[in-house]
């Protein structure tokens, strides 16, 4: 994979099985995002004798990629990433999913793979795709009927300033709305309006980029 590139990264459960069974699972997955993507100096400050993070620091990738948006779904994940160094995404996904699978298997007393063998990463090569992909990712949880509020386990609250974290980087997308010069958002007052009020279907604009059939 090339350096300095925007990518849509996603994977699903093996045999389309659910990979998040309760809120704890979602919280743990976000914890691993935090460990691998928060600045190292920030991690060192929160370390305590009962909260050991030393094993994460050598594997931290905060300088190699930015997580622009994400959503967890019952049987798959969507990650919108800006990669700064070659192979950063490969290293990140391998470490992230390995950590989560070890947790999930131990919790549920199971063995074997949880995700399908190979994640997928697709280049985002224009600004319209960049914007509408974030919109698609943030709308995705609204279609889920579950006891888990998957919208709460997406980056959307961070875009609306309801949550803050150094490991989520909404500024790349929100920057377009400060200038309001892009043709796709020139009539939009805010990012929230773009996501919730835009009349065009995000998946129609993205076309085959989302490969939604993979998650049916």
Write up this protein.
- The protein is α+β, with helices and mostly antiparallel strands.
- It has one domain (5-206): Transposase IS200-like (Alpha-Beta Plaits), CATH 3.30.70.
- It has helices at residues 23-37, 40-46, 88-108, 127-139, 156-159, 171-179, 191-197, 202-206; strands spanning 5-12, 65-72, 76-83, 120-123.
- A four-stranded antiparallel beta sheet has the order 2-3-1-4, covered by helices on one side.
- α1 packs antiparallel against α3.
Radius of gyration, in angstroms, nearest whole number? 17 Å
CATH architecture: 2-Layer Sandwich
Q: What is the fold-level CATH name, i.e. the topology?
A: Alpha-Beta Plaits
> In percent, how helical is the residue content?
25-40%
Gross morphology is globular
Percentage of residues in DSSP E strands? 5-15%
Count of helical regions = 8
Number of distinct beta strands:
4
Number of domains: 1
Compose a concise summary of this entry.
By secondary structure, the protein is an alpha+beta fold. The protein has eight helices and four strands, in the order βααββαβααααα. The chain has helices at 23-37, 40-46, 88-108, 127-139, 156-159, 171-179, 191-197, 202-206; strands spanning 5-12, 65-72, 76-83, 120-123.
């Amino acid at each position: 994979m090339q350096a300095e590139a925007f990518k849509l990264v996603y994977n699903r459960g093996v045999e389309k099985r659910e990979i998040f069974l309760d809120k704890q699972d979602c919280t743990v997955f976000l914890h691993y995002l935090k460990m691998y993507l928060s600045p190292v100096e920030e991690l060192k400050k929160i370390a305590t004798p009962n909260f050991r993070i030393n094993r994460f620091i050598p594997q931290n990738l905060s300088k190699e990629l930015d997580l622009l948006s994400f959503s967890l779904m019952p049987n798959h994940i969507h990650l919108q990433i800006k990669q700064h160094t070659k192979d950063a995404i490969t290293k990140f996904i391998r470490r992230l999913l390995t950590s989560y699978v070890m947790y999930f298997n131990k919790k549920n007393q199971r063995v074997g793979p949880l995700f399908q063998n190979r994640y997928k990463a697709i280049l985002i090569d224009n600004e319209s795709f960049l914007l509408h992909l974030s919109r698609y990712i943030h709308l995705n949880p609204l279609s889920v009927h579950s006891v888990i509020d998957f919208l709460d386990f997406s980056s959307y609250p961070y875009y609306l300033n309801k949550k803050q974290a150094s490991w989520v980087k909404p500024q790349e997308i929100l920057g377009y709305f400060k200038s309001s010069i892009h043709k796709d958002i020139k009539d939009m007052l805010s990012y929230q309006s773009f996501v919730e009020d835009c009349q065009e279907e995000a998946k129609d604009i993205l076309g085959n980029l989302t490969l939604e059939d993979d998650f049916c």
